[in-house]
Design brief:
single chain; mainly alpha; 2 domains
């Protein structure tokens, strides 16, 4: 196995681990809530505690990756993810699980941006689209394996096993990384913006807490109002800090590049929908549709299968034709798929109420993911690949975080038929906006043909 193949394999497995956790958790939520005596709020926090630290620390992780080396940060993240997965698996209470999920998100923040930065720093620019397409297709296998495996584990054994399964791929990744050695020394170390990191965490934590708990306490309650105000003020101070800092955690200058700015704005709408849609769909299928965890996992598999089979193909097409068309049409097609699922009724029939829409969703997702990633990272210099990848991942995770936190505002207190319909409509609208942002904002870059020149290998 040559170095580029090994790097791509490691990047795929590392991201697979983080994505597997996100794919597995949705089918386990009803069992977790029942076992630990929680309702929709616990289900939201089981997802959002992870996304909160992942989204708020992923920018810091990008800076750490650029400063201390991608391989070193990945190794630290893998060990941290292993320990926190065990803590989640043995959680005796809902509060313990939420704290463990937050710690797990902190470890996960070290994985995805560093793995993508590893690809950008290793492959030549003309080959990056294809490599990212392969990365997208294979890491999406986590979403293929996750719901099915998670459903089987929940139905036949316990929801706790969905966290134990993280240990095996972590061990495989650590073994494969050994021949890659250490990162090349960097002459100039990036200074870390610790104040920005703290303000980002406080800002997101306060805002998300208010969005989730407002359904229980109401907006006027100090329990909700105080965290909301503190969170919003902290987010404003975060932006001001990033503007004045000599070494910002979020380099605002990156947004001066058109594709980077437009791509991240599109990511807000697209990935808010990519997170909220499956979250609502999986819970609805179990709690209102009457499906078991295993059957809910099977029912939501078609989009993942299509993404695995077609993701690299659309990545190749994007490399030749440019990402603009795919980033426009893909989200709109996904939105059309969610509109088709509005056919759901109290007398639930999967085959005609859900399946047609799910197939359309799969096609649109396959068109969207690889071109979106390639367009954004292609606008960043390789030396800043870590922070560029981290920014986009942070935008995606924070968008999903806020979307899930807001589900009570959209759906109400439960995901019955009416609640699901309102959620699916909101998801579709967000996706159409994301597609329009891509059309008006993205420009197809000039791509040099692939040559036999050796790729850059600095990681």
């Amino acid at each position: 196995m040559d170095r580029t193949t090994r790097v791509l394999t490691v990047a795929i497995i590392v991201s697979f681990i983080a994505f597997l956790d996100g794919a597995v958790i949705n089918v386990a939520l009803p069992s977790i809530a029942e076992d630990l005596d929680g309702g929709l709020a616990l289900q939201q926090w089981a997802v959002d505690a992870y996304l909160l630290t992942l989204g708020s620390l992923i920018l810091l992780a990008g800076s750490l990756s650029d400063s201390f080396g991608r391989l070193r940060i990945i190794r630290i993240g893998l060990w941290g993810f292993a320990v926190t997965s065990v803590l989640c698996a043995i959680a005796p209470t809902g509060e313990f699980l939420i704290v463990s999920r937050a710690l797990q998100g902190a470890a996960g923040a070290l994985l995805v941006p560093s793995s993508l930065a590893l690809i950008i720093a290793t492959f030549a620019p003309a080959a990056q689209g294809h490599a990212i397409g392969r990365w997208t297709a294979w890491t999406t296998a986590a979403f293929l394996v996750g719901p099915l495996l998670g459903g089987v584990l929940v139905d036949l054994a316990s929801w706790r096993l969905v966290f134990w399964i993280n240990v095996l791929p972590i061990a495989v990744a650590l073994v494969l990384m050994h021949p890659l050695g250490r990162d090349e020394p960097r002459t100039e170390r990036v200074r870390i913006d610790w104040l920005g990191a703290a303000l980002g965490v406080i800002g997101l934590a306060g805002t998300v807490f208010a969005l989730i708990e407002q359904s229980r306490y109401g907006w006027a309650s100090p329990v909700v109002a105080v965290p909301l105000v503190v969170g919003l003020v902290s987010l404003v101070l975060f932006v001001l800090q990033e503007r004045r800092s000599r070494h910002p955690m979020l380099p605002l200058g990156l947004f001066g590049r058109r594709n980077f700015a437009a791509g991240n704005l599109a990511t807000v709408f697209i990935y808010a929908s990519f997170t909220l849609g499956p979250f609502a769909m999986t819970i609805f299928l179990q709690e209102s549709g009457g499906l078991s965890a295993t059957m809910a996992g099977l029912a939501t598999l078609p989009p993942t299968i299509m993404l695995v089979l077609l993701g690299s193909r659309f990545g190749d097409l994007s490399g030749r034709l440019g990402p603009r068309l795919f980033m426009t049409a893909g989200p709109i097609i996904v939105g059309a798929g969610y509109l088709l699922t509005l056919a759901v009724q109290d007398a639930f029939v999967y085959w005609w109420q859900f399946l047609p829409g799910i197939l359309v969703i799969g096609l649109g997702m396959a068109m969207t993911v690889a071109p979106l990633t390639a367009a954004i990272l292609g606008a960043v210099d390789p030396v800043h690949a870590g922070i560029g990848s981290a920014v986009n991942n942070a935008v995606a995770r924070i968008a999903g975080l806020v979307a899930v936190a807001s589900i009570g505002v959209v759906a109400g207190s439960q995901l019955d038929v009416a609640g699901y319909r309102r959620t699916a409509l909101a998801v579709a609208v967000s996706l159409v906006i994301g597609g329009l942002v891509s059309w008006f904002g993205i420009r197809n870059p000039h791509v040099e043909p692939v040559t036999d020149a050796p790729p850059a290998t600095r990681v």
